[in-house]
Amino acid sequence: MLDMAGTREALDVGIREYRTEDYESVLALWAGAGLPFKPEGRDRRKIIDSQVRQPNVVFLILII
Questions:
Q1: How confident is the model at residue 21 (pLDDT cuts 50, 70, 90)?
Q2: The pTM is what?
Q3: Half-sphere exposure of 23 (CA within 13 A, CB side)
């Protein structure tokens, strides 16, 4: 990332697996980014929670 002077600035970031308590923040991010989401359909908390419990699913969260 570049700062106001155009020099590179290190970011302190992390990656972790999604947790149920991330749901509202994820929906807010998707909405803010203009991404389509269906909170009454495929993107319901219950559906996402069941998907991330599947052995072949990984939903990662970037922490800045």
A1: very high
A2: 0.73
A3: 14
Q: How far is CA 40 from CA 48, 60, 61, in A?
A: 12, 22, 22
DSSP E strands in 1-64: the ranges are: 14-17, 60-63
- Contacts of residue 19, Cβ cutoff 8 Å, sequence gap at least 6: 61
Instruction: Find the farthest-apart pair of alpha carbons in the chain and give their distance in angstroms, rounded.
Output: 46
Spans of all domains in the chain: 14-63
CB 11 within 8 Å of CB 1: yes
DSSP helix/strand/coil, 37: coil
